[in-house]
Amino acid sequence: MSPYVLLFNFFFVLSLLGAGHALLTRKQPNSALVWVTLCLSLPVVGVLAYIIFGVNRVRRSATRLREEFEQKNVMGHLKPPDHRAHTCMLRELPEEIVMLEKIGRAMTGTFPLKGNSIQPLFNGQLAYPAMLDAIKNARESVYLSTFLLNKDTVGKQFIQNLVAAHKRGVHVAVLIDGFGLLLSWRSVVRLLRRHGIPSTVFLPLSLLPPQIRLNLRNHRKLLAVDGKVGFTGGMNIGGTHDAKGHQRLSDIHYKLTGPIVSQLQQIFMEDWAFAKGKAHQPLPAPMDHTGEILARVIKDGPDNPDNPLHTSIIATISAAKHSVRIMTPYFLPSAELISALSIASLRDVAVTIILPAKSNWPFVQWASRNYFKGLLESGVRIFYQPQPFCHTKLLIVDDCYVQFGSANMDPRSLMLNFELNVEVLDMDLAQQLIAHVDDTVRRSQEITHREMISRPLPVRIRDAFFWLFSPYL
Hints:
The chain is α/β, with parallel strands linked by helices. It is built from 19 helices and 17 strands. The protein has 3 domains: 3-55; 59-66 and 114-295, 2-Layer Sandwich (Endonuclease, Chain A), CATH 3.30.870.10; 308-472, Endonuclease, Chain A (2-Layer Sandwich), CATH 3.30.870. The strands form 2 sheets. It has a 15-stranded mixed sheet, sandwiched between helices. A two-stranded parallel sheet has the order 7-13. A hairpin with a 3-residue loop joins strand 14 and strand 15. One of its GO terms (cellular component) is plasma membrane.
């Protein structure tokens, strides 16, 4: 048989295998159709593209490491929740909080932890000094995970304090995403390692051996110190979050104390084990109660086929009785999320969405505008807030439910990235953040239905064109 025939047969079989794999594993029919068509029409290029960009090799590795955790009982010393005490606690809560708690429990399989304190920190002026102060006062451990660690003035302050803590005998570990590392400075990891600080890169990008995963990024941001204080939210580490000028970012980070910190540490350990291929040292025991807030962490990523974050957001909005407030920098909603928002508004729930007037990614903003018309027709109110660019990710439901963290309202966050949100069931924190959101609405420009339908034809074509690529933006 001719070598050309053998080569043709090889690629033909490979294209069938690629198309079959996409058909059986892709969650969305449009995604499956794209990959099947690409594999069959371009047997060489299509299959290679599918192997590099379409195959989720993360889930298999994460499952193996989760089994390793269970075998080594790394988390075994964490006390399981007292179901009877939890049931008694729920009886003391308002009915709407109990209903929303059940949704989160069904999505995550975990009980919320009572006894926490959570403090919003607005922008880098409040967040960074609090984080640096926690590192300066660390006595046992500092665990930092971030998408970006810039080597600017702010980044250097963090590096100096991490090095100082390491020299005091504190166990310091730093995890940085591989793609985020390319967006900042590779020398950051080398610098930390030069000082003896354990540092690793999450899914590093390289050409040899080929590891080019533009998706499946670790977008989580967390800092856990001594098992006593934690920080999480939407902020990376860099001067862009100082918000001192109109070109800066505006964001909210959160300081957490109480048992919830143990969940942040556990997620760090799991991510560290995934990046290093081995488990880290055991966690300290959860700390005592520091407040009355009921909270739990919702983690999500390509290693979880159930998409608990996306599903919990839709279910919570669907259960809303009075109001839904959303603040997000990127808004590319799924069909399910659009339905939940529209139906909630048609049920006379006040649905408010706040977006930046000017995005740092224009094509994302153009695609986003193509969703507005249908939402506005159902009664959803949409606002553009003025500069600086707001990077805040926040969901508030019925004056008692808050969800904040690293996830944007787009497919990349809710389907592809490793994300971390915190679900809070507390009226006081909700009221504090509602005041911030409502003040922002008063300073923002409302988008009208007439404005959407009166866009010039070239603008509508541009918006619709980029909307086609929403799942990949």
